[in-house]
Amino acid sequence: MIARTVGAAARRLLKEAQTAVLVGHTSRGAFLALDSGEPVFLSLEGYRGPLTVNVAGPAQPLRGLPVQAPARLHAQEIIFEQHGISIQTAGAETWLAPPRPENPLSQRVRRVFGEEVLQQAVQHGEAEGMLAAVATLLGLEAAVERRPLPTSLLAVRDYLRQRQLERAAAAIQPLLGYGRGLTPAGDDLALGLLLALGRWGDVLAPDLEVQALERLVLPAAAWRTTALSTSLIACAAQGQADERLLAALDGLLCGGVTAERLVAGVSKWGNTSGLQALAGMLLVVVP
After folding, report:
1. What angle do CA 140, 158, 195 make, to 5 degrees?
2. Is residue 101 domain-resident?
3. Same domain assignment for residues 191 and 259
4. What is the pLDDT of residues 156-196, one digit of tens each?
5. Which of 32, 80, 224, 232 could join 176 in a cystine, given CB atoms 3.0 to 4.6 angstroms apart?
6. 66: part of which helix (H) or strand (E)?
7. Residues linked to residue 79 through DSSP beta bridges, in sequence order
């Protein structure tokens, strides 16, 4: 098998590691846990991301690998010796998030469009979870039945606006690990929030030290949630994420896409993870 694209973070991790173990399958690929404890995603799709290795070739060999199948990493190759499968990464393109677009929307237009996107997202089928909480927070009772607002979510917004980073990080902590799955809903929201600040912080909050906030959040993530979530959040704070999340974020800031297309695109990331990450973006993108 041949890797067409390797995310920059995945490239670095694979170069530094010597062994790995396949720890799980999804309908779209499989996860490796490296000997460093960090994850890499072997994807059968074309969507690129910082921790993603986009694999070309028949899907069955990868899907047929059992959980706990060991791999050896050598000379830009992922080798499952016991199963006669290897993935060549030497000729793969290294992927980084593209430059962001120019001419962001005004705050007034951004709020109107953000509210439209949020309403569309709720109608898309995510009437619960973080989107519902953010809808309540932004006063969109018409979009979703009013629900109790998580105290920590309200505190996150207020402390960020006040530039009280230690308190904001403390308010984010209860969200980390909240929910089920490889990337729980609270993690997805934190990812979306930090991605928005990491990529557009000079527009959204010019005087906020995003890297200082990252240094406060990541240690808590490391012991509260999964290794996958922690790695994705770390990438997000650097402005790096799956291209579906980047497209949604840039669309929120600059327009050029309908609310329907934006929501449809971001919803393709995971089962509900893309929509939960969208909630985190909206929390800081909508003034």
Report:
1. 80
2. no
3. yes
4. 999 999 999 999 999 999 999 988 878 898 999 999 999 99
5. 224
6. none
7. 72, 86
